[in-house]
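Notes, p. 3: input format for complexes.
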Amino acid sequence: MKLKKLISSSEFTLFKILEVINESGLGITFCVDKNERFIGTLSDGDIRRAILAGVPLNTQAFEILNRQSESFKKILEKCANPEMLNKLKQESVCAHYKSSAVDLMNLVSERVTIIPLIDDERKIVDYFEYKANFKIPIASSILSGQEISNVLECLETNWISSQGKFITQFEELFCQYIGAKYAVSVMNGTAALSLALAALDIGVGDEVIVPDLTFAATINSVLQVGAKPVIVDVNPDDWCISATEIKKAINKNTKGIIPVHLYGYPCNMDEIINICKNSNINIIEDNAEALGGEFNNKLLGNIGTIGCFSFFGNKVITTGEGGMCTTNDEKIFQKLKVIRDHGMSREKKYWHTCFGFNYRMTNLQAAIGCGQIQRINEILKKRDEIQNWYFENLDMKFFEPQKKPINGRSIVWLVSVLLSSKIDKEKFIKLLNEERIDIRPFFYPLSEMPIYKPYIGGTINSAPLISKRGINLPTLINLEKEDYKYICSKINQTLHLMTK
Ligand SMILES: *Cc1c(COP(=O)(O)O)cnc(C)c1O
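Output follows (500 residues plus pyridoxal-5'-phosphate):
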């Protein structure tokens, strides 16, 4: 809905106001004075009551907006049914555009569900509409800076496909941030994983070890290149792949391990590197969820042979859909590029030197990525703050956070905690959904899903226990402390009710 369609001059006649309301379709209009300052909201019900009171349709809006005014008194004297006019709502409820979601929710009532948002001069710059299905979603991003100007530049210059300056720029900025020599952008995080495996010549007959607790993209990428995934258990305390279990699962066919830095937590890379030493097993880091995390002072994704990243909408930074492979090996870098682009020779057009995919990222996606990666520190800082706000305001006797890493630094992706085993998780999530707060359960263990069962490669104990109790809390970087206090109060209330 265009804001302009909702605004009327207070000099409009009631007839004209009816026309505006009819056009807007929201049943109301915001009236402004000559200087575009907000005066009050009129609803179709208000006009109906004015007509029933006997107020002529050529009356101007301002005459009925202010009940203290002389003009209103005159109308009262003249009209047939002055009682009716007392039922006019005459709402002048409005809020500053910087108000928090909680403040806005507090202004909402049965009668007022659409609130104009005004600037310091009372000019209307936006509006807030309360919907019965209003929800605090699980994640959000901020795209209001370079992201917008970069995308507009793509559109204005016609560079919207998979060539253009933002692709190179994004890859360069990403390399700089991660500290890797090379980066290859791709269309999503799953493609990054498949591309990495293909570039390492992993395929039919090869085995790749994956953790039981992860998003299914990790195992799907292995299946996609025709290799056999081998699922092993995770550690009970940090929820990441268990080095002990990796050791047990290795055999002569093992060509790769995909440690997943789960929910922002760095896997113990020392142990994994040690296991692979003097073997031809490659480490492909799935760093879709821990961009900015570190192990031994190295950024995650820059420790294994190839690092894979995702820029899906709810990830630490986003390009809508998007992904990246990073490496320090020149040869692998060249292979990644060739396979990303149909396996086509980089020297001879339409000459294909190997089997490949079309996994390219578009300039539009990269344009957003360039804006996002430049504010990564600010984004990570905000995510830390959000987690602190949760831990300060939640009744922590019901929650168990991930343990603190010893040789590394974890980051906050989606605030992740284990719920007390006394609480029925499904019921908890349902009750909070009814409060319009989106709480997510952890991933199901791969080993529990029939399609992945054939690939279980060891004893599984911890993953199901963690999965059963784990939840992700809303981690929206455009909400503030007060908003999180509100979310926490709803969560605490719910838990106290459930344990009464
Ligand atoms: C999101 C995610 C992926 C896949 O990324 P997409 O961009 O959605 O394809 C892979 N692995 C993990 C652990 C993820 O969380």
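The mean pLDDT is 93.
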